[in-house]
Design goal:
Blueprint (H helix, E strand, L loop, with lengths): L1 E8 L2 E8 L10 E7 L12 H11 L3 E5 L16 H16 L4 E11 L1 H12 L5 E5 L7 H5 L4 H8 L4 E2 L6 E2 L1 H6 L5 H4 L7 E6 L7 H11 L7 E5 L9 H17 L3
Parallel strand pairs: 3-4, 3-5, 5-6, 6-9, 9-10
Antiparallel strand pairs: 1-2, 2-4, 7-8
Helix pairs in contact: 2-3
Length: 263
């Protein structure tokens, strides 16, 4: 069963979709999973990746919440005002909302993040003890400020410094200076070994946006922290695992790994 839900952060409304297993009993407790989309993405994600993942998890007994960060999808706000701390704050509020659902087991809560959402998931898992495991899809874990600014012309940087929103990353997407000033406020690669809960990193070796080497470096930092930590490379996979066989492979790996935790 799926239903639209809303909750608020910073006096703005956030829109989400809650997936609940069919035939769940009134007082039954089941594990919950929270999903974080990527930069310029939304709760559906590219080629409906998040829909397919959430459906499969729900069919296997999980309550899943996927939602739009403020400024994305159907939620309040404007994308140009997006900052990484703002998305982490949205993630914290979404986690609180999920934990308040009657059938969610508070001791079996995990997060799944794609790309920039993987950055959010890693940060949240490093500091919020409510998170019991994390799955990172094609995560953006390294420094981003200088790399992002390197794609900007001198004229655009001058406009940013004057307080203007400028087009960035893809046509029609505008962003302000605050994004660049905050995107590295926590660099996950620097703090990955502080994540004590199990972590699965899933990355395609043909990812054109975030090189698989970044995932390998992250795994090298965490492989000795928790015996359940794992890096899974999708051979031929792109940034969002767009080929059907890759989507199915990622879903199967996600389910198998979570089962291995005894969740």
């Amino acid at each position: 069963m799926i239903r639209p839900v809303t909750f608020r952060n910073m006096n703005q409304q956030i829109i989400g979709i809650l997936h609940t297993p069919d035939n769940i009993r009134l007082n039954e407790k089941v594990p919950g999973i929270l999903m974080f989309h990527g930069f310029t993405g939304n709760k559906t994600e590219a080629h409906r990746l998040f829909v397919h993942v959430a459906r499969s998890l729900s069919e296997h007994g999980f309550i899943v919440l996927r939602f739009d960060f403020r400024g994305s999808g159907d939620s309040d706000g404007e994308f140009e005002d997006m900052t990484l701390p703002g998305e982490v704050s949205d993630a914290e509020r979404a986690l609180t909302f999920l934990l308040r659902q009657r059938n969610v087991d508070k001791n079996r809560i995990g997060v799944i993040g794609l790309s920039m959402g993987g950055r959010v998931a890693a940060i949240l898992a490093s500091k919020d003890r409510r998170v019991k495991f994390a799955v990172l899809y094609s995560p953006a874990l390294g420094p981003l400020r200088d790399r992002s600014l390197s794609f900007m012309s001198k004229e655009k940087i001058e406009r940013l410094n004057s307080g203007e929103a400028v087009e960035f990353f893809a046509e029609g997407w505008y962003i302000k200076k605050a994004f660049f000033e905050t995107v590295d406020y926590i660099v996950p690669l620097d703090i990955m070994d502080s994540i004590k809960v199990p972590v699965l990193i899933v990355h395609g070796d043909k990812d054109p946006l975030i090189p698989v080497g970044e995932a390998i470096r992250a795994y090298e930092k965490i492989k000795g922290v928790n015996e359940k930590n794992e890096l899974y490379i999708v051979r031929g996979g792109d940034h969002t695992f767009s080929k059907k066989e890759h989507t199915l492979e990622v879903i199967k790996k996600t389910l198998d790994w979570i089962r291995s935790l005894g969740i």
